[in-house]
Protein backbone atom coordinates (compact mmCIF):
# COMPACT_ATOMS: atom_id res chain seq x y z
CA UNK A 1 0.00 0.00 0.00
CA UNK A 2 1.37 3.40 -0.94
CA UNK A 3 1.25 6.56 1.06
CA UNK A 4 -2.17 7.43 -0.36
CA UNK A 5 -4.79 4.98 -1.58
CA UNK A 6 -5.29 7.29 -4.52
CA UNK A 7 -3.33 10.37 -5.48
CA UNK A 8 -4.98 12.68 -7.98
CA UNK A 9 -3.23 15.37 -10.02
CA UNK A 10 -5.28 17.99 -11.81
CA UNK A 11 -3.68 20.17 -14.45
CA UNK A 12 -3.66 23.77 -13.40
CA UNK A 13 -1.69 25.13 -16.31
CA UNK A 14 -2.51 28.55 -17.71
CA UNK A 15 -1.46 29.75 -21.14
CA UNK A 16 -1.92 33.01 -22.96
CA UNK A 17 -5.41 33.54 -24.35
CA UNK A 18 -4.25 33.37 -27.96
CA UNK A 19 -2.42 30.06 -27.54
CA UNK A 20 -4.05 27.58 -29.97
CA UNK A 21 -3.63 24.69 -27.53
CA UNK A 22 -5.84 26.38 -24.95
CA UNK A 23 -5.20 25.41 -21.34
CA UNK A 24 -6.89 23.49 -18.57
CA UNK A 25 -7.29 26.50 -16.32
CA UNK A 26 -9.30 28.46 -18.91
CA UNK A 27 -11.54 25.40 -19.33
CA UNK A 28 -12.63 25.48 -15.70
CA UNK A 29 -10.12 23.17 -14.04
CA UNK A 30 -10.03 25.18 -10.82
CA UNK A 31 -13.77 24.82 -10.15
CA UNK A 32 -13.49 21.07 -10.70
CA UNK A 33 -10.49 20.94 -8.38
CA UNK A 34 -12.34 22.84 -5.68
CA UNK A 35 -15.28 20.47 -5.96
CA UNK A 36 -13.30 17.25 -5.58
CA UNK A 37 -11.11 18.65 -2.79
CA UNK A 38 -14.21 19.55 -0.84
CA UNK A 39 -15.76 16.13 -1.42
CA UNK A 40 -12.63 14.38 -0.16
CA UNK A 41 -12.54 16.60 2.90
CA UNK A 42 -16.24 16.27 3.70
CA UNK A 43 -16.14 12.50 3.27
CA UNK A 44 -13.39 12.09 5.86
CA UNK A 45 -10.99 10.70 3.25
CA UNK A 46 -8.22 13.21 3.90
CA UNK A 47 -5.01 11.27 4.42
CA UNK A 48 -6.22 8.42 2.21
CA UNK A 49 -6.99 10.33 -0.95
CA UNK A 50 -4.88 13.31 -1.93
CA UNK A 51 -5.86 15.91 -4.53
CA UNK A 52 -3.07 18.08 -5.95
CA UNK A 53 -2.69 20.77 -8.52
CA UNK A 54 -0.05 19.98 -11.12
CA UNK A 55 1.78 21.73 -13.91
CA UNK A 56 1.01 20.93 -17.54
CA UNK A 57 0.21 17.21 -17.90
CA UNK A 58 0.70 17.34 -21.66
CA UNK A 59 -2.91 16.49 -22.37
CA UNK A 60 -4.00 20.01 -23.30
CA UNK A 61 -6.31 19.00 -26.12
CA UNK A 62 -8.41 16.93 -23.72
CA UNK A 63 -8.50 19.50 -20.93
CA UNK A 64 -9.42 19.85 -18.19
CA UNK A 65 -7.16 16.85 -17.71
CA UNK A 66 -6.27 14.83 -14.62
CA UNK A 67 -4.65 11.56 -13.66
CA UNK A 68 -5.34 9.14 -10.80
CA UNK A 69 -2.30 7.27 -9.46
CA UNK A 70 -1.20 4.60 -8.77
CA UNK A 71 -3.98 3.40 -11.11
CA UNK A 72 -2.59 5.53 -13.96
CA UNK A 73 -6.05 6.39 -15.23
CA UNK A 74 -6.44 9.66 -17.12
CA UNK A 75 -9.68 11.60 -17.20
CA UNK A 76 -11.16 14.55 -19.01
CA UNK A 77 -13.98 15.82 -16.76
CA UNK A 78 -15.92 18.68 -18.33
CA UNK A 79 -18.39 19.49 -15.57
CA UNK A 80 -18.83 19.31 -11.81
CA UNK A 81 -21.16 16.36 -12.43
CA UNK A 82 -18.36 14.55 -14.26
CA UNK A 83 -16.00 15.21 -11.36
CA UNK A 84 -18.62 14.03 -8.88
CA UNK A 85 -18.91 10.76 -10.79
CA UNK A 86 -15.11 10.31 -10.72
CA UNK A 87 -15.17 10.91 -6.97
CA UNK A 88 -17.98 8.52 -6.10
CA UNK A 89 -17.21 5.81 -8.64
CA UNK A 90 -13.44 5.75 -8.88
CA UNK A 91 -12.02 7.38 -5.77
CA UNK A 92 -14.53 5.93 -3.33
CA UNK A 93 -15.38 2.62 -5.00
CA UNK A 94 -12.47 1.82 -7.32
CA UNK A 95 -14.57 1.64 -10.47
CA UNK A 96 -13.07 3.39 -13.49
CA UNK A 97 -15.48 5.82 -15.18
CA UNK A 98 -14.90 4.62 -18.72
CA UNK A 99 -16.92 7.35 -20.44
CA UNK A 100 -14.55 10.01 -19.08
CA UNK A 101 -11.26 8.20 -19.68
CA UNK A 102 -8.96 9.96 -22.13
CA UNK A 103 -8.27 7.96 -25.28
CA UNK A 104 -4.76 9.02 -26.22
CA UNK A 105 -4.90 7.02 -29.44
CA UNK A 106 -7.21 9.60 -31.03
CA UNK A 107 -6.23 13.16 -31.98
CA UNK B 1 1.71 0.38 -19.90
CA UNK B 2 0.57 3.79 -18.78
CA UNK B 3 0.87 7.02 -20.64
CA UNK B 4 4.33 7.65 -19.18
CA UNK B 5 6.80 5.00 -18.07
CA UNK B 6 7.42 7.15 -15.03
CA UNK B 7 5.63 10.29 -13.94
CA UNK B 8 7.42 12.41 -11.35
CA UNK B 9 5.81 15.09 -9.20
CA UNK B 10 8.00 17.53 -7.31
CA UNK B 11 6.52 19.68 -4.59
CA UNK B 12 6.71 23.31 -5.49
CA UNK B 13 4.81 24.67 -2.52
CA UNK B 14 5.81 27.97 -0.99
CA UNK B 15 4.85 29.10 2.50
CA UNK B 16 5.49 32.25 4.44
CA UNK B 17 9.00 32.53 5.85
CA UNK B 18 7.82 32.26 9.45
CA UNK B 19 5.83 29.09 8.89
CA UNK B 20 7.30 26.42 11.21
CA UNK B 21 6.74 23.65 8.66
CA UNK B 22 9.01 25.34 6.16
CA UNK B 23 8.33 24.54 2.51
CA UNK B 24 9.91 22.63 -0.34
CA UNK B 25 10.47 25.70 -2.46
CA UNK B 26 12.59 27.45 0.19
CA UNK B 27 14.66 24.26 0.49
CA UNK B 28 15.74 24.43 -3.15
CA UNK B 29 13.10 22.33 -4.89
CA UNK B 30 13.14 24.47 -8.01
CA UNK B 31 16.85 23.94 -8.70
CA UNK B 32 16.36 20.20 -8.31
CA UNK B 33 13.36 20.32 -10.63
CA UNK B 34 15.32 22.23 -13.25
CA UNK B 35 18.12 19.68 -13.08
CA UNK B 36 15.97 16.61 -13.59
CA UNK B 37 13.85 18.24 -16.30
CA UNK B 38 17.00 19.05 -18.23
CA UNK B 39 18.37 15.52 -17.78
CA UNK B 40 15.14 13.99 -19.12
CA UNK B 41 15.18 16.35 -22.08
CA UNK B 42 18.86 15.87 -22.89
CA UNK B 43 18.55 12.08 -22.61
CA UNK B 44 15.79 11.94 -25.23
CA UNK B 45 13.31 10.58 -22.67
CA UNK B 46 10.69 13.25 -23.21
CA UNK B 47 7.37 11.51 -23.80
CA UNK B 48 8.43 8.51 -21.72
CA UNK B 49 9.30 10.25 -18.48
CA UNK B 50 7.35 13.29 -17.36
CA UNK B 51 8.46 15.73 -14.67
CA UNK B 52 5.80 17.98 -13.14
CA UNK B 53 5.57 20.59 -10.47
CA UNK B 54 2.89 19.84 -7.90
CA UNK B 55 1.14 21.56 -5.05
CA UNK B 56 1.88 20.55 -1.46
CA UNK B 57 2.48 16.80 -1.26
CA UNK B 58 1.98 16.80 2.52
CA UNK B 59 5.55 15.72 3.18
CA UNK B 60 6.83 19.13 4.24
CA UNK B 61 9.08 17.89 7.03
CA UNK B 62 11.07 15.80 4.53
CA UNK B 63 11.29 18.48 1.86
CA UNK B 64 12.23 18.89 -0.86
CA UNK B 65 9.81 16.04 -1.47
CA UNK B 66 8.82 14.21 -4.63
CA UNK B 67 7.01 11.07 -5.74
CA UNK B 68 7.57 8.73 -8.68
CA UNK B 69 4.43 7.10 -10.11
CA UNK B 70 3.19 4.53 -10.90
CA UNK B 71 5.90 3.06 -8.62
CA UNK B 72 4.62 5.17 -5.69
CA UNK B 73 8.13 5.77 -4.38
CA UNK B 74 8.70 8.93 -2.35
CA UNK B 75 12.04 10.69 -2.21
CA UNK B 76 13.67 13.48 -0.27
CA UNK B 77 16.56 14.68 -2.47
CA UNK B 78 18.65 17.35 -0.80
CA UNK B 79 21.18 18.14 -3.52
CA UNK B 80 21.59 18.10 -7.28
CA UNK B 81 23.77 15.00 -6.78
CA UNK B 82 20.87 13.27 -5.01
CA UNK B 83 18.56 14.18 -7.88
CA UNK B 84 21.10 12.96 -10.43
CA UNK B 85 21.20 9.60 -8.65
CA UNK B 86 17.39 9.37 -8.73
CA UNK B 87 17.49 10.12 -12.45
CA UNK B 88 20.17 7.62 -13.42
CA UNK B 89 19.24 4.85 -11.01
CA UNK B 90 15.47 4.98 -10.77
CA UNK B 91 14.15 6.82 -13.80
CA UNK B 92 16.58 5.34 -16.30
CA UNK B 93 17.24 1.93 -14.76
CA UNK B 94 14.29 1.19 -12.49
CA UNK B 95 16.37 0.75 -9.34
CA UNK B 96 14.96 2.47 -6.25
CA UNK B 97 17.50 4.70 -4.46
CA UNK B 98 16.85 3.37 -0.98
CA UNK B 99 19.01 5.90 0.84
CA UNK B 100 16.81 8.75 -0.40
CA UNK B 101 13.42 7.11 0.13
CA UNK B 102 11.23 8.89 2.67
CA UNK B 103 10.43 6.81 5.72
CA UNK B 104 6.99 8.04 6.71
CA UNK B 105 7.05 6.00 9.89
CA UNK B 106 9.47 8.46 11.44
CA UNK B 107 8.56 12.06 11.73
TrEMBL record, chains A, B:
Q: Name one Pfam family in it.
A: 2Fe-2S_thioredx
Do you know which InterPro entries this protein is assigned to? Answer: Thioredoxin-like_sf (IPR036249)
Tell me which SUPFAM superfamilies the record gives.
Thioredoxin-like
Q: What name does the UniProt record give this protein? A: Ferredoxin, 2Fe-2S
